[in-house]
Write a structure and sequence with these properties.
By secondary structure, the chain is an all-alpha fold. The protein has three domains: 406 residues, Na+/H+ antiporter like fold (Up-down Bundle), CATH 1.20.1530; 50 residues; 48 residues. The protein is built from 22 helices and no strands. α16 runs antiparallel to α18 and α17 packs antiparallel against α18. The longest helix has 37 residues. The radius of gyration is 27 Å and the shape is elongated.
Length: 547
C-alpha cells in the first residue's frame, strides 16, 4: 500500500508542476519546478522516497529513450552523424580525462579512480533535460537535432566509463585493452539487440494480424513492452541496455514506414505515449528533488572529507567543476569545428563559418539530468576489504550540484544567447512539405479514379452515376492541395492566410457539429453509443486539422 501511495503522490506532484510552470511569474523550465516540488515533499513534509537506481534504470529509462529514438528526426540524425558521434563518444572520453585529473588535483583526498568515476557520470547529457530546456529556449532546429542525438548516445559511453572507474577503485587495477574491447562489445551488441528486438516483434505481430486479425489493445501493449524487452535482453548479454532501447526506437520509426498500422491505432498510441512521456519525465525529476534534502544533510560530513571546515568550499568545487565541463565542451566543439572546416577546405568545398554564439550555445546546452544522479547512487558503500568507499558522499553531492547548476545555467543563458539566431536552415524544408502534399494529393486522385473504374464495371446506369458523383465529391477534397499554389507566381503569404482561414472555418464547423451531437444526446434523441462513435470521428478529423 505504501508503494501505491508513493506513486500516486508523485503523479499528483507531476500534475501540479504542469500548472505551476504556467502560474509562476518567472519563466522556469519544467524540470526545475519538479525538482523543487520533490525537495519540498522530502524536506518540508518528510515524505520523500529513496531512489533505487536499479529500479530507476529499468522502469524509467527504456520507454523514454525508446520514444526519443522513435521521434528524433532521422534525416538530421544521419546528416550530422559525424558531429553527433564525436560529441557522444569522443567528448565523453575527453571530459573524463580532463575533468578527472582536475577533480583529483582540486580534491587530493579523492583518489584518482574515484575522480574519474565522478567525471564519467557527469559527462553525459540528459535527453529529458535537453528537451525540457529546448521547450523554453529558442534553440535552432539543426542544433537541437545534434543535441538530441548526442544525449541519446552518450549515456552508454558515460556509464561504461563510470563502471570501469568504479571497478578500478574496487580492484585497484585497470586494463585499457580490456576496457576498449568491452566498450566495443557493449556498444555494438546493444545496438544490434535493439534493432533485432524491434524487427522480430514487428514481424511476428504482422504475421499474427494477417492470420488472426488486429487487436488494438494487445498491439498497443506490445508496443509499450518493446523497449523493456530490448533493455533487459541487452543487459542479459552484458551489453548496453540504454543503447539497445535507443536503437529499438530508431528501428521502430522505420518499421512505421510500412504503413500497416491503422490511423485510429496511431492516434491512440500517440495519446498513450504522450501521457507516459509526461508522467515518467516528471517522476524522474520529482525523485531527483526528493534526494536533495538528504544529500544536503550530509554536506557537513562532506566538507570534512575534503579536508576543509567551511561549507563554502563545496560551492567552490561545484563552480569550478561546472566551469571546467563548459570549457572542456567548448574546446572540443571548437576543435571539432576547425577540423571539419580544414577537411572541407582540403576537399575543395566552400563551407560558411559558424557563429561564435552557436559554439558557446552548444557548450552551455550540455545539460545533466536524472540519469547522472541515478548512476552516481549506484556507487557501492564499501570496498572489498570492508572499508568505506572513498569520498562517496562527496561524489554524490557534487554530481547533484552539477545537475542543478547545468539546468539553471542553461535556462538563463540559452534564451539570451540564441535570441534572433538561426543555424543554416534545413534546405528546402517548406518546399519538401509542399511537394509531399502535392504528390500525396495526386496519388489520392489516381487511387480514387482506379477504384471508381472498378466500381462502375457491370453496373446499371443509375449506379454508375452514383459512383461518379461520389468520386467527384471525394476528388474535390484533394484538388484543393493541388490548386492552392496554382503556379510559380502564387504569393506564399496569401497561400498561408488562405490555409489558416480554411483551418479556422473547418474547426468552427467541427465544433458546431460536436456541440449539436452533445445536445441531441442530452435530450435523448440519439443513443450514447452513436454519440461516442460520431464524436470520435470528429475528434480524429480535428486532430488531423491541427497537424
Amino acid at each position: 500500500m505504501h508503494t501505491i501511495e508513493v506513486v500516486l503522490a508523485m503523479l499528483v506532484a507531476v500534475v501540479a508542476s504542469g500548472y505551476l510552470v504556467r502560474v509562476l511569474p518567472l519563466s522556469l523550465p519544467l524540470p526545475l519546478v519538479q525538482i523543487g516540488l520533490g525537495a519540498v515533499i522530502a524536506g518540508v513534509f518528510n515524505r520523500g522516497h529513496a531512489l533505487e537506481p536499479e529500479m530507476f534504470f529499468l522502469l524509467f529509462l527504456p520507454p523514454l529513450l525508446f520514444l526519443d529514438g522513435w521521434r528524433i528526426p532521422k534525416q538530421g540524425l544521419f546528416r550530422d552523424k559525424g558531429v553527433i558521434l564525436e560529441l557522444a563518444f569522443g567528448l565523453v572520453v575527453f571530459t573524463v580525462i580532463g575533468a578527472g585529473f582536475l577533480i583529483h588535483w582540486m580534491i587530493p583526498v579523492m583518489p584518482l579512480a574515484v575522480a574519474f568515476a565522478l567525471a564519467a557520470i557527469i559527462s553525459p547529457t540528459d535527453p529529458v533535460a535537453v528537451s525540457s530546456i529546448a521547450s523554453r529556449a529558442p534553440i535552432p532546429k539543426r542544433l537541437m537535432h545534434i543535441l538530441e542525438g548526442e544525449s541519446l548516445l552518450n549515456d552508454a559511453s558515460g556509464l561504461v566509463c563510470f563502471r570501469f572507474a568504479v571497478a578500478a577503485v574496487m580492484t585497484g587495477t585497470f586494463s585499457l585493452a580490456a576496457a576498449s574491447l568491452t566498450f566495443l562489445w557493449v556498444a555494438v551488441a546493444g545496438l544490434a539487440i535493439g534493432v533485432a528486438v524491434t524487427l522480430g516483434v514487428s514481424t511476428f505481430q504482422r504475421w499474427l494480424w494477417r492470420r488472426f486479425g488486429e487487436e488494438p489493445g494487445a498491439a498497443l501493449l506490445v508496443n509499450l513492452l518493446i523497449p523493456f524487452a530490448a533493455y533487459l535482453l541487452a543487459e542479459e548479454f552484458n551489453a548496453s541496455g540504454i543503447l539497445s532501447a535507443v536503437a529499438a526506437g530508431i528501428t521502430m520509426s522505420y518499421v512505421e514506414l510500412s504503413g500497416r498500422v491503422s490511423g485510429s491505432m496511431r492516434v491512440q498510441r500517440t495519446a498513450v505515449w504522450n501521457m507516459l512521456q509526461f508522467s515518467f519525465n516528471g517522476i524522474m525529476f520529482v525523485l531527483l528533488g526528493e534526494q536533495l534534502p538528504g544529500i544536503v544533510e550530509r554536506a557537513i560530513k562532506t566538507v570534512s572529507e575534503s579536508g576543509h571546515h567551511s561549507a563554502w568550499w563545496l560551492l567552490v568545487y561545484v563552480v569550478v567543476i561546472n566551469l571546467a565541463l563548459v570549457l572542456l565542451r567548448l574546446a572540443w566543439v571548437w576543435l571539432s569545428l576547425r577540423w571539419s572546416l580544414l577537411r572541407a577546405r582540403h576537399r575543395g568545398e566552400a563551407r560558411p563559418g559558424t557563429s561564435w554564439r552557436i559554439v558557446v550555445a552548444t557548450s552551455l546546452a550540455g545539460v545533466r539530468g536524472a540519469i547522472t544522479l541515478a548512476g552516481v547512487l549506484t556507487l557501492p558503500l564499501f570496498l572489498p576489504d570492508g572499508s568505506a568507499f572513498p569520498a562517496r558522499d562527496l561524489v554524490i553531492f557534487l554530481a547533484a550540484a552539477v545537475i542543478l547548476i547545468s539546468l539553471v545555467g542553461a535556462s538563463i543563458a540559452l534564451p539570451r544567447l540564441l535570441k534572433g539566431l538561426e543555424l543554416p536552415a534545413d534546405s528546402g524544408e517548406r518546399k519538401e512539405e509542399d511537394l509531399a502534399r502535392k504528390l500525396a494529393a495526386k496519388a489520392a486522385l489516381a487511387g480514387v479514379e482506379r477504384t471508381r473504374q472498378q466500381l462502375v464495371q457491370n453496373q446499371t446506369t443509375e449506379n454508375v452515376q452514383l459512383y461518379n458523383d461520389a468520386a467527384s465529391r471525394v476528388s474535390l477534397l484533394y484538388q484543393r492541395n493541388l490548386e492552392k499554389e496554382a503556379g510559380p507566381d502564387a504569393d506564399p503569404e496569401k497561400v498561408k492566410r488562405m490555409e489558416q482561414g480554411y483551418r479556422q472555418l473547418r474547426t468552427a464547423g467541427l465544433t458546431a457539429e460536436r456541440e449539436e451531437l452533445f445536445r441531441l444526446t442530452r435530450r435523448g434523441k440519439i443513443s450514447d453509443e452513436i454519440s461516442r462513435r460520431l464524436i470520435r470521428n470528429l475528434d480524429l478529423l480535428e486532430t488531423r486539422q491541427r497537424d
